[in-house]
């Protein structure tokens, strides 16, 4: 490999839906890293949030690499939520990769390969490049259509100007397509990357601001550039090591990034990339940005994975590893030994442990309020109180789930806001774990494979 490619266009837009954690916009800390009672969608759990904030600060300062944090606590105490908060607070540049322990077993690659990829997704490389760009205001675009259909390809001319000069450029088919696609017209200020031919519309020239009265409110006006049309510009982009791996590993290149079908990546490819990145770092062209790898449900990993983690953390380019589990003392997968959280002692020893605690009634109430707002559900005061009580008695998750269901019940009876009746209706429609277990206890003879009294196996909860 003579050249390591780093970029092949990353114009992805993300689709946002209302997910379990979509209300979380950060860790909700103040400048002194104290957790505010309720901020950025985060409520309570102050000690854990503060601890997470301290870790984040260390990452931002670039002080630590290869550290690991364990979020441990009962189900529904906000471990995943805190990890999401960290991701949001981390900022644009540092990458945040996330996976669930169980994913390791469902991929068409070895477990260690899956973990290696996950680690490399969490390491960013900031690359500085000088490129030549042409930047100017479009005076005219002239496209010559061929006389016969499908005969010769289209050609054309593009006239660009700055306040000081004007030049006519010849256009090929590719450029014409790009210009048409972006609806570039005269009066637009554009920048064209000479190497890749990528066109970016910077806005409309101020000189043209009075031309149209029917322009959308989003139209951005910019000054016509001055000086030379051709300029050298330093561009900085951040890619992850994994992205570089994929782009360089196979013929389909970056397409694999979109398809998610990357397969195993050969060790030689990775070695070459690591050498290249090291060279760039020495030349001052690149910097490593260690990000965060979050492995949820970490007790699902087995002993092989755990020992891989031990080693991987000692690598100098390792990201910060955050793992979460709700398990107590349990068997380590792949062995017959028991250990706290189902994690071997040698790995536990390397972890900073953050514990999460159950929520108070007031905190549950606040989280439910935030969720109502997130889901756009109007709810009466009484209904909120009842839902909070239910949350306290059953679980936070169960009560969060009732919000959507109750809103539907309310819609059905054409009500304006969710009332107590809607809550009690869905409370009787959907049972929580406690009632479901109760039901099983009473009627278990009628179910298949019931073996409760006296037997070890088949107990309902671990
Ligand atoms: N402190 C909090 N502030 C706001 N929302 C929270 C908070 N804690 C939890 N939630 C919300 O409550 C729900 C359950 O929390 P979460 O999924 O984080 O629990 P968990 O500790 O990961 O549980 P499990 O061990 O079962 O995975 C989520 O929708 C989460 O966004
Ligand atoms: Mg979780």
Automatic annotation (TrEMBL):
Pfam families, per the entry: TIP49, TIP49_C
Keyword terms: ATP-binding, DNA damage, DNA repair, Helicase, Hydrolase, Nucleotide-binding, Nucleus, Transcription, Transcription regulation
Subcellular localization(s) per the UniProt record: Nucleus
GO cellular component: nucleus
GO BP, one annotated term: DNA repair
MF-aspect GO terms: ATP binding; DNA helicase activity; hydrolase activity
Keyword DNA damage carried by entry: yes
Enzyme Commission number(s) of this protein: 3.6.4.12
Residue ranges occupied by any AAA+ ATPase domain in the UniProt entry: 65-358
Catalytic activity line of the entry: ATP + H2O = ADP + phosphate + H(+)
Homology family: Belongs to the RuvB family.
Protein name as annotated: RuvB-like helicase
């Amino acid at each position: 490999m003579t050249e390591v490619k780093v970029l092949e266009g990353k114009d992805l837009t993300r689709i946002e839906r209302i997910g379990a954690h979509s209300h979380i916009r950060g860790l909700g800390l103040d400048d002194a890293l104290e957790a505010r009672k309720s901020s950025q969608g985060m409520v309570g759990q102050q000690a854990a949030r503060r601890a997470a904030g301290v870790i984040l600060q260390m990452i931002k300062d670039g002080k630590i690499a290869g550290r690991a944090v364990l979020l441990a606590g009962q189900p529904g105490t906000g471990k995943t939520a805190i990890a999401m908060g960290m991701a949001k607070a981390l900022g644009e540049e540092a990458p945040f990769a996330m996976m669930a322990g169980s994913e390791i077993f469902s991929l068409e690659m070895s477990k260690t390969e899956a973990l290696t990829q996950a680690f490399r997704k969490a390491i960013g490389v900031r690359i500085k490049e000088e490129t030549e760009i042409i930047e100017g205001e479009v005076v005219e675009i002239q496209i010559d259509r061929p006389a016969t259909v499908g005969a010769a390809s289209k050609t054309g001319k593009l006239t660009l100007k700055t306040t000081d000069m004007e030049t006519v450029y010849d256009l090929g088919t590719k450029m014409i397509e790009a210009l048409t696609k972006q609806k570039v017209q005269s009066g637009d200020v554009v920048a064209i990357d000479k190497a890749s031919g990528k066109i970016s519309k910077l806005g409309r020239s101020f000189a043209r601001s009075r031309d149209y009265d029917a322009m959308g409110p989003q139209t951005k006006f910019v000054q016509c550039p001055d000086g030379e049309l051709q300029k050298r510009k330093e561009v900085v982009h951040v890619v992850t090591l994994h992205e570089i791996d994929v782009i360089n590993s196979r013929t389909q290149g970056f397409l694999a990034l979109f398809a998610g079908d990357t397969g195993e990546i050969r060790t030689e490819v990775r070695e070459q990339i690591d050498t290249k990145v090291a060279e760039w770092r020495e030349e001052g062209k690149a910097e490593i940005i260690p990000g965060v790898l979050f492995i949820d449900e970490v007790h699902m990993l087995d002993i092989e994975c755990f020992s891989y983690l031990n080693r991987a953390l000692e690598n100098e380019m390792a990201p910060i590893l955050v793992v979460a589990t709700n398990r107590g003392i349990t068997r380590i997968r792949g062995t017959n030994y028991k250990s706290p959280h189902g994690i071997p002692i040698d790995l536990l020893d390397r972890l900073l442990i953050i514990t999460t605690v159950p929520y108070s009634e007031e905190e549950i109430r606040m989280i439910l309020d935030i969720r109502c707002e997130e889901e756009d559900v109007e709810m009466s005061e009484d209904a909120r109180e009842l839902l909070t009580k239910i949350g306290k008695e059953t679980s936070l998750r169960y009560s969060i789930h009732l919000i959507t269901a109750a809103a539907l019940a309310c819609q059905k009876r054409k009500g304006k806001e969710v009332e107590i009746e809607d809550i009690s209706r869905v409370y009787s429609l959907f049972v929580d774990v406690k009632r479901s277990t109760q039901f099983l206890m009473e009627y278990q003879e009628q179910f298949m494979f019931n073996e409760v009294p006296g037997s070890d196996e088949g107990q309902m909860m671990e």
